[in-house]
Records
---
Amino acid sequence: DGGITQSPKYLFRKEGQNVTLSCEQNLNHDAMYWYRQDPGQGLRLIYYSQIVNDFQKGDIAEGYSVSREKKESFPLTVTSAQKNPTAFYLCASSPQSGRGEKLFFGSGTQLSVL
Amino acid sequence: EDKVVQSPLSLVVHEGDTVTLNCSYEVTNFRSLLWYKQEKKAPTFLFMLTSSGIEKKSGRLSSILDKKELFSILNITATQTGDSAIYLCAVQGAQKLVFGQGTRLTINP
């Protein structure tokens, strides 16, 4: 079955620690996205990538980093510089970016700080 | 700055009622408006609207776009407890998809 797989479902971070959230898709989509969702708020864009080896900052990129070495994979690292990382993180993909096409979402990762 | 505003933020109704959810936007180079339903984790796609005045319908759900007044509505008739969810509106601009805050809909039996 085609889709987007995020792992882990739950993740705990200690003070000063970097953690990496995984996102893999087998839909052959060019564009991939990372969103953050806080309670009572909508989805806010962290980073997005339109093609392999290229990515752009979204609205709240500070304290996060990404890579896009393969078309299928778009991991997100939450660095120690992100002071309030507790949130629900959603990865998504679309055939292309900026064309108004619908996004396909993964099941998300809930990140909490210990 | 691109902006999408949904209202109400929260709505509680009884099973069988009809509800209308609102989404207004200010986006540069509008491409499309999308509605998603988020029950637990992953949002699921409901509708994509690109043209004004053309209603999209799927069962008890329907949606319409007004590009002159810059808003969309999502209607749900004869609501069921399974309709309880967060409904997200998103608008595709020149570069990225901008989401609203979501409307949390609760259907009581």
---
Amino acid sequence: KQEVTQIPAALSVPEGENLVLNCSFTDSAIYNLQWFRQDPGKGLTSLLLIQSSQREQTSGRLNASLDKSSGRSTLYIAASQPGDSATYLCAVRGGANSKLTFGKGITLSVRP
Amino acid sequence: DVKVTQSSRYLVKRTGEKVFLECVQDMDHENMFWYRQDPGLGLRLIYFSYDVKMKEKGDIPEGYSVSREKKERFSLILESASTNQTSMYLCASSPNRAGYEQYFGPGTRLTVT
């Protein structure tokens, strides 16, 4: 059974810092991996989707990498801003039509 | 832009009531999903559907049922609400094609008293 882990559960950094959020998964036979952002009391917003054949994806200040063999993904946030404060979740898909397995998320606080 | 809407943002119901949570998507997606999210437990899949009138159980289907009569609409039904069903409920949809993202609605915060 696939398990997705995100450690630490919470992170607090000063504004302007570059930071890395980690995600690990137990079964490397994944189809793709998706990073989401969730603001308090709201739904999830998709940030980046990495297919199993890809190594990384970029969107603005965000860069997500995938190392399937080691069961790891990282979300890199450059020059963090207070508006980046949110919970970041990663989720993996085991096959084209299989469900997503989610990590519990990392709650990020960026201090002004 | 993909839009997934949920009928209520906040809902308060009494124990034993029948509760309907509605989800509508406007992008002609085949797949639709219902999750619940609880502190410390993360997101857990309740039910999903790959097509109209089709449903499959997720990880925690007990106490819930679903209905998908039209492609754009996926309903979650709590036959007899209980206090342990107090939670945030999230609906999502995705195309039934390889590699596409899942899109989420804003969520419904349900409190059962």
